[in-house]
Amino acid sequence: MLSCDQILSELGNLLDDDVTREVRRELEAHLAHCRTCTVILDSSRKTVRLVTDAGSFELPDRVSERVLQRIRSQAAAGPGSAPPPPPAE
Predict the structure, then answer these.
(1) 1 touches 29 (CB < 8 A)
(2) Could you give the C-alpha distances from 14 to 20, 27, 78, in angstroms and in order?
(3) By the number of CB atoms within 10 A of the CB, which of 1, 44, 55, 68 ranks highest?
(4) CA–CA distance from 64 to each of 7, 34, 52 (Å)?
(5) Average pLDDT in the chain
């Protein structure tokens, strides 16, 4: 049976319906007994559905730049770092 880490690493493929029958069978067996992975999968499916149904929209330039700055600073800080506080308005 697959571990939770293996399930999470296959999550994108599962959401894209891009797994072999054998992997799908192992995923389903794991999900039948693991509430945590089931919740993660369900939440991921709902998130994809929400984003897909929402369509695209343009953010104001100021908002886009703030989001990009925050992503860049977190990426530079590395994994496990606390996110910086949001900039003052």
Answers:
(1) yes
(2) 9, 9, 28
(3) 44
(4) 33, 38, 20
(5) 85
Sorted by sequence, the CB contacts under 8 Å of residue 24 that are 6+ apart come out as 14
> What single-letter amino acid sits at 15?
L
Those residues whose C-beta lies under 8 Å from the C-beta of residue 38, and which sit 6 or more positions away, are: 31
Q: Vertex 10, ends 40 and 24: CA angle to 5°?
A: 95
| DSSP for residue 58 | P
Task: Please state the pTM of the whole predicted model.
Answer: 0.57
Q: How far apart are CA 20 and CA 36, in angstroms?
A: 23
Low-confidence residues of the chain, pLDDT below 50?
Answer: none
